[in-house]
């Protein structure tokens, strides 16, 4: 037996029997209500004396009502007056119903007057208004019934439900209060509202009092025994949000916030949209602005390679590049789990993206050359690196192999295969480094500056043999030299020479939420009940969110000409101790009482503060006020490349003198707090 389809010929699901019954009942009600309304209007026109109604008017009323009623019902049907979800009928539906019934009243008045006879003035006015009131109230009566039925009893709810303070008496706050009061599955009840607009103070929003502004938060948390605070001002400036949340975190309440980018759907808010307050919300910095047109034009229809594409910075680069319509995006990473995760995310969000995800190491010259020869990337973002300072202090040879030699091999492959632009992701730890990780990134900057000089001069013969087989060397050097010479185009821009391959470095500080960030570590320590370990009470770092940093990386790439070191303005430095205390408070605990803070001492190679520029470097502005160009420190290219050869031999032989060798090359490197032996 064939199963009956639940869809009609147009593919839409058939209406349920319950819906049809409701629609029929409404039609019957409308017929009775409209007829009765105009009958009352006729009686009103004759002072409710039946005997004074002329037969002509009575006949016109009866005949016209009988003839016009089907047309009116059909009109209402097409205007969806029988097809709304009555439980969620709102202001928009109210306006539409008034308009539709008013239009029907006008049509009724015109029709009966011109087809039959003019009626008393009261007939038009009273009949039309009564019709409008009856039809609209019938539709809203169910909504009112549901409101009364589902509204939580304040007395009973406050005994068992979580007690909530709502910050913001605007549209978002109002809808959050409304939902809290009427959704039985949400075990929370609004007890008071905070708003800085003094005109709203001492007023009530659905029986919930607006008790004052931000200065009244602490007193009312205690007065109403508040357990959770909902920050519901999505349009608030970053500074205002920071100031209010700083007050809130002094309470032991759980804090939740509506995201900045927030849209209303049918004027409703879902409490589930609220998210826990993060440290990012306390930075107090306005969102960073970039020129999206420049970035799109720069990336669109280009083949782009991201090394280390599964890491914190690399994966965010891939996300933002995928939004810019590239010709092809190639992700290269040695860690398969991260690579797989970003691959699946991009496939899900961008099904039409031309995506290749490859596993391999930048230390493997043959593998990286194979990738460049096959895909011929136009732009390379080199994010692959070892970044963890203490681990690199224990394994300095690995820092040089992966960061320095890996960068050199990747940069040479870019030159060899005609890549137009190579962007190195560097760090502020490269400035006056005190650890091997920072020194290795400074060497990476020197590598790309050297490659840029080689690219401009055509002197590929200067490049050291760090990975060639002996039989390949002469052929590759000849090929590179020819490629460099053919690519040189003299184009004067600020007295610089524009070549086919441009190498730049981009330096910024710590990013919140990265794999090496202190935030994940602190959260795990809080979950375990403490203590939180901070190396020093005065240690400070520059912080930026990962999306912010990556957007500036993409923007800086559009400014590149070759040889620059771009520096991102990271804002004001943040004390790690303050960061830890804020996290403890946001988690609902008291620092030093419920969660202890232990100062463990600076780790090997760790500085109290990071610098963005070396003393010898100056700053040059760009079109974006958050991006600057540091004047490169001059160094002898040929000498550096010779030193690089010896450094490569030493690290691959796992030399115990690798740190001293790096110190001899990077004059600003002053290692501190480490043991003499390198591994």
Please provide a written account of the structure.
By secondary structure, the chain is an alpha/beta fold. It folds into three domains: about 15-150, no CATH class; about 155-275, NAD(P)-binding Rossmann-like Domain (Rossmann fold, 3-Layer(aba) Sandwich); about 290-665, 3-Layer(aba) Sandwich (Rossmann fold), CATH 3.40.50. The strands form five sheets. Strands 10-9-8-11-12-13-18-22-21 form a nine-stranded mixed sheet, sandwiched between helices. The protein has a seven-stranded mixed sheet with strand order 3-4-2-1-5-6-7, with helices on both faces. Helix 2 (about 55-80) packs antiparallel against helix 3. The protein is elongated and about 120 Å long. Mean pLDDT is about 80; it is low at about 1-15, about 155-160, about 260-270, about 470-475 and about 485-500.
Q: Would you spell out the secondary-structure blueprint of this structure?
A:
Layout: H1 17-45, H2 55-78, H3 91-115, H4 121-150, H5 154-160, E1 162-167, H6 171-182, E2 188-194, E3 204-205, E4 208-212, H7 217-223, E5 228-231, H8 238-248, E6 254-257, E7 275-276, H9 292-299, E8 303-307, H10 312-322, E9 328-333, H11 336-349, E10 355-359, H12 365-375, E11 379-382, H13 389-394, H14 396-416, E12 421-427, H15 436-457, H16 470-487, E13 502-508, E14 510-512, H17 518-527, E15 532-534, E16 540-541, E17 543-545, H18 546-559, E18 565-568, E19 574-575, H19 576-586, E20 597-599, E21 619-621, E22 627-630, H20 637-652, H21 658-665
Parallel strand pairs: 1-2, 1-5, 2-4, 5-6, 8-9, 8-11, 9-10, 11-12, 12-13, 13-18, 14-17, 15-20
Antiparallel strand pairs: 3-4, 6-7, 16-19, 18-22, 21-22
């Amino acid at each position: 037996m064939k199963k009956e389809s639940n869809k009609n010929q147009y593919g839409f699901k058939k209406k349920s029997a319950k819906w049809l019954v409701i629609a029929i009942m409404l039609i019957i009600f409308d017929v009775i209500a409209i007829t009765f309304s105009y009958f009352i209007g006729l009686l009103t026109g004759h002072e409710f004396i039946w005997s004074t109604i002329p037969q002509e008017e009575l006949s016109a009323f009866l005949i016209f009502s009988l003839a016009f009623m089907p047309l009116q019902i059909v009109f209402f049907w097409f205007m969806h007056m029988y097809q709304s979800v009555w439980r969620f009928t709102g202001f928009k539906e109210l306006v539409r119903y008034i308009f539709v019934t008013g239009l029907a009243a006008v049509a009724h008045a015109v029709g009966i007057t011109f087809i039959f006879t003019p009626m008393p003035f009261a007939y038009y006015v009273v009949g039309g208004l009564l019709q409008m009131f009856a039809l609209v109230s019938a539709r809203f009566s169910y909504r009112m019934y549901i409101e009364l039925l589902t509204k939580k009893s304040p007395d009973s709810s406050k005994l068992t439900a979580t007690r909530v303070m709502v910050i913001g008496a605007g549209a978002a706050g109002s809808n959050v209060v409304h939902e809290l009061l009427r959704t039985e599955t949400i075990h929370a009840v609004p007890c008071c509202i905070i708003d800085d607009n003094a005109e709203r103070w001492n007023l009530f929003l659905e029986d919930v009092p607006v008790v004052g502004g931000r200065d009244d938060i602490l007193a009312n948390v205690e007065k109403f025994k508040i357990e959770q605070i909902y920050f519901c001002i999505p349009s608030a400036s970053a500074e205002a949000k920071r100031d209010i949340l700083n007050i809130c975190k002094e309470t032991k309440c759980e804090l939740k916030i509506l995201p900045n980018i927030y849209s209303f759907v049918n004027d409703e808010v879902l409490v589930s949209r609220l998210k826990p307050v993060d440290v990012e919300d306390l930075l107090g910095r306005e969102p960073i602005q970039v020129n999206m047109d420049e970035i799109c034009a720069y990336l669109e229809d280009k083949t782009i390679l991201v090394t280390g594409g599964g890491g914190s910075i690399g994966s965010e680069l891939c996300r933002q590049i995928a939004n810019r319509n590239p010709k092809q995006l190639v992700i290269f990473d040695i860690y398969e789990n991260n690579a797989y995760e970003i691959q699946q995310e991009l496939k899900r969000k961008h099904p039409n993206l031309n995506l290749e995800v490859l596993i391999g190491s930048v230390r493997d010259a043959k593998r990286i050359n194979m990738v460049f020869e096959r895909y011929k990337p136009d732009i390379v973002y080199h994010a692959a690196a070892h970044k963890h300072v203490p681990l690199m202090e224990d394994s300095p040879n690995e820092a040089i192999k992966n960061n320095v030699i890996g960068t050199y091999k990747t940069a040479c492959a870019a030159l060899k295969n005609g890549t137009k632009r190579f962007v190195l992701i560097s760090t502020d730890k490269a400035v006056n480094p005190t650890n091997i990780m920072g020194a290795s990134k400074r060497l990476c900057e020197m590598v790309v500056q050297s490659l840029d000089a080689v690219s401009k001069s055509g002197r590929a013969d200067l490049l050291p043999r760090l990975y060639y087989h002996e039989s390949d060397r002469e052929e590759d050097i000849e090929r590179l030299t020819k490629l460099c010479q053919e690519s040189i185009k003299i184009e004067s821009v600020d007295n610089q020479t524009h070549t086919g391959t441009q190498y730049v470095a981009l330096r910024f500080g710590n990013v919140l939420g990265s794999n090496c960030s202190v935030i994940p570590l602190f959260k795990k320590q809080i979950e375990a009940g403490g203590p939180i370990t901070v190396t020093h009470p005065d240690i400070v770092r520059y912080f930026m969110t990962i999306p912010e940093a990556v957007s500036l990386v993409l923007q800086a790439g559009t400014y590149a000409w070759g040889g620059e070191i771009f520096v991102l303005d990271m804002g004001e430095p943040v004390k790690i101790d303050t960061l830890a205390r804020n996290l403890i408070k946001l988690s609902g605990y008291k620092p030093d009482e419920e969660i202890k803070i232990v100062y463990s001492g600076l780790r090997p190679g760790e500085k109290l503060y990071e610098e963005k520029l070396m003393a010898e470097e100056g700053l040059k502005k760009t079109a974006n006020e958050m991006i600057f160009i540091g004047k490169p420190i001059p160094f002898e290219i040929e000498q550096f490349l010779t030193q690089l050869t010896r450094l490569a031999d030493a690290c691959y032989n796992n030399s115990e003198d690798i740190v001293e060798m790096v110190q001899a090359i990077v004059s600003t490197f002053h290692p501190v707090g480490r043991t003499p032996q390198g591994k």
